[in-house]
């Protein structure tokens, strides 16, 4: 986790994001993407953005800051979870004195149905654990 800040994500010509790394492909995820990002004190995510079809869950793992969605700004800290619809204009800023680290999970909006719920997905006991 302490090495996230060392990653640089290229976003296009002359645009990079310091401290962000995508991990979904690395773990073989097939229904979502996930990324980690660390912002140093005073740093923000660089720009407001939206998505075409993906909503996002932001989970603050460490630090404190402010989150902005559609002009509304509210405080966030360790344990805060934010869900943002695809068209929500979003950004994050570290307003604390330590690094702010978050996990972002991105997935197609409205794709998860009641049949996908962990309570109804037909969890099948394969075998008992034998530690």
Automatic annotation (TrEMBL):
Q: One Pfam match, by short name?
A: Cupin_2
Q: Which InterPro entries match?
A: Cupin_2, GPI/OXD, RmlC-like_jellyroll, RmlC_Cupin_sf
Q: Which UniProt keywords apply?
A: Metal-binding
This protein's record includes keyword Lipoprotein: no
Domain Cupin type-2, first and last residues per copy: 36-105
Domain of life according to the entry: Bacteria
Keyword Metal-binding set for record? yes
GO MF terms on file? metal ion binding
Protein name per its UniProtKB record: Cupin domain protein
